[in-house]
Amino acid sequence: MAGRISIRFYEELNDFLPAGQRKADIAHSFRNTGSVKDLIESMGVPHTEIDLILVNGVSVAFDYQVQDGDRVSVYPVFEALDIQPLTHLRPRPLRVTRFVLDVHLGRLAAYLRMLGFDCLYRNDYEDAALARLSVAEHRILLTRDRRLLMLKQVTHGYYVRARLPREQLVEVMTRFDLLRARRPFTRCLHCNGLIEPVDKEAVLERLLPRTREYYEKFWQCARCGKIYWKGSHYRRMQRLLATVEAGMAEPPGPT
Q: Whole-angstrom Cα distance, residue 129 to residue 126?
């Protein structure tokens, strides 16, 4: 059944649209009826970014079958507005914030681990593995590939807009309100394991002479055994953390 609808996307969902369609009513024609989810994703917007769809002023689920003449409004995740009586399309937030990241976000994964967040990352993860890990281990999938978020099984995901790793870190920390949940320097940057204090004598043979001489306190990853101490790398990470906190404190720009 052919038809024609009017559809509009709100706030950050416009990031996924061509410039000429942003913040405007879009006239859209279709040949065969289908679900509103399929319609929205055919326009480039992943379902994981959406919390509410109104059709002719009434909230609907993703499986609603689009009809000729429908007026569709699509909204992102709400931070403050109370929409309890309406049909939420996003699952409840995960109680424990854990991530799995795609192959393009290796530096972001290291930064998030530095702040103490549980992050799975490998540079050879395939899309199917990322989706499976996200669902099986209740992890938020972070990606720069919007097609990955359109996989039906993915329920918790986020498209990272920024391109530079430090900006990505500020974006993710802000989006998921993680500032108070951070536990800096408690995870291994390389394998995601937890870091624990270790006696200097226990790792002495693995230390370079200069490190043995100048440092007394050490930590070791319980998973891979990597050794950490508060050297120049620690000071650089402290400066990065200060930059991130300052970035999160800045007021948001115009939308």
A: 5
